Amino acid sequence: QIPSNSTTTMMRHSIFLLVIVGLSFSFAYPIENEEVKSVKNLAECIVCQGVASELIRGLEANATMDEIAILLKRSCSIVPTKAGKQACNNATSHLLKNFEKFFPFVLHREDYTPHTLCTMVNFCEVPCCVSDAPEQVHIALAGDSINSMSVSWVTSKKDTSFVYWGTDPKNLNKKSQGSNYTYTSGGWIGILHKAMITGLVADTKYYYKVGGNTYGTSKVFSFRTFPSKASSWKFGVIGDMGVDPESLNTVRDLTNIVKNEQIDVLVHSGDISYADGYQARWDQYMRRVEPIVANVPYMVCPGNHEIMPLNELGLYGYKYRFLMPGVESGSNSNTYYSWNYGPVHFVALNSESVLNTAHISDEELVWLRKDLASAVANRKQQPWIVVYLHRPLYCTNKDMIACGVEALLLRDILEKLFFDNQVDLVITAHKHDYERTTSVYNDQPFSNGKAPMYVINGAGGNREGVLSFPPNPPKWSAQRVSEWGFGTIEVTKNSLNWVYTIASNLTVADQVKLTK
Questions:
Q1: Which residues are paired to 139 by β-bridges?
Q2: Count of CB atoms within 10 A of residue 27's CB?
């Protein structure tokens, strides 16, 4: 059954007004130059937003997709020019084809608007940047984690890609040229740059800036190389942190920690920015965390908000934005890889699929077995093995999919492998709370260090809110906290000290020490 005539009239009237605005830019002009082409792109964007607004309105009124499709096609039929009709029908076809199975998810996102939806099908554009200058600068470990650092940044326009560095902020006397590239999915408009800083020496503070010959350079940032003379090594750990008000305390605390040089590396175990297919959130997030990730290496793995059903549309912001040591560790991937730092061998895994379910690919599993075997053989140099991935193998909150079926699936694939190779700590996220297990294997608690200890640290702060816990946890659940926060690890050859801190007041909510 089709909705009432009044509903039809309302939908047609709204689309008609927007289409007329679009047509005022005129689809009829032949594309003769970039200026005219830009005007036509804007007109298509306006038409798409009109179609998308009615699609959303129809769904919110509980109309079926078939009913909405009929109404949209009828609405397009009243557009007064052939080119305008074609633009309206194209937008309708793209939105219905690409979003029919995703709209239940989309409608729960408060910042999804007709414009954001139209960016996802490339009818509207998303400019990357607030100016022509370099922004969103971040670094990551490369090479052997001592002598090299990768640097990434974004500009609004194409330019050469240089990084300048030195040990004196007023004399950046070394330079290397990188490369630049782009992606256009999601309507994103910008240029991504990458470059390598090589020949670094341990125990040294370096200063650097990035930029090109045309649009200038960034401010000067700094980082310290591997502290070979330190008595301990320190790492920050976050998960599920979006560009949302809920993450502001965590960002503030980490900014101060980095400013005071209290961590050597920051690990993020998935769900970065909560872009959910809208590319502008990537840019907003990377600008917000730049004071952190431009000054300490930022080592990431993907979560479901990076590799999710909407990525069937090709919205892979993660794929293009992060350089991780996949080549160095033999995976040739930035979604799973490994790296050494001091006495720790870190392993990053990809637990995601485009079906939004827990998944470890066969290729990744083959690589993991080989990597862990190598790590065990190298245990004298790196006595600790720490794994991080997004989805948990153990958790106890009320989500019986993530903490039930999917956790059991991941245990079936990974738990014995972790146990047999004496993995010490497994860091996960996904659930928006903090939980730590005892050392545990096959659902049975062990004394500390006799089996892997699991941490669920999905409380960096995001718009979905913090979760609560049901009563009566199993014996292996050692601590549970429903507060936004972050983790830190301090490691020596003989000890690993894990701390969870509440971001709002810097209260230590959990602490445990493993020893060898």
A1: 151
A2: 20
Distance CA 179, CA 196 (A): 10
In angstroms, the CA 318 to CA 320 distance is 6
Task: Quote the CA–CA distance of 296 and 233 in Å, as a whole number.
Answer: 13
Distance of CA 233 to the CA centre of its chain: 25
Q: What is the mean pLDDT of residues 370-379?
A: 98
CB 437 within 8 A of CB 498: no
Q: In angstroms, rounded to a whole number, what is the distance separating the alpha carbons of residues 31 and 431?
A: 50
Instruction: Give CA–CA dist 340/147, Å, rounded.
Output: 12
Q: Strand 188-189 relative to strand 298-301: parallel, antiparallel, unpaired?
A: unpaired
Which parts of 384-424 are beta strand (E)?
384-388
Q: Of 461, 423, 457, 417, give the one whose Cα is nearest residue 439.
A: 423
β-pairing, 221-224 vs 188-189, is: unpaired
The residue count of the chain comes to 516
Is 299 within 8 Å of 267 (Cβ atoms)? yes
Q: How far apart are CA 155 and CA 130, in angstroms?
A: 9
Separation CA 105–CA 417 (nearest Å): 34
Q: What are 165-210's pLDDT values in tens digits?
A: 999 999 999 999 999 999 988 899 999 999 999 999 999 999 999 9
Termini Cα distance of the chain = 70
What is d(CA 178, CA 156) in angstroms, rounded to the nearest whole number? 17
- With CA atoms as reference, report the closest residue to 128 among 275, 295, 297: 275
Please write the tens of the pLDDT for every residue from 106-131.
666 656 788 888 888 888 999 999 99
Interval 293-319 mean pLDDT:
82
pTM to 2 decimal places: 0.92
3-state class of 89 per DSSP?
A: helix
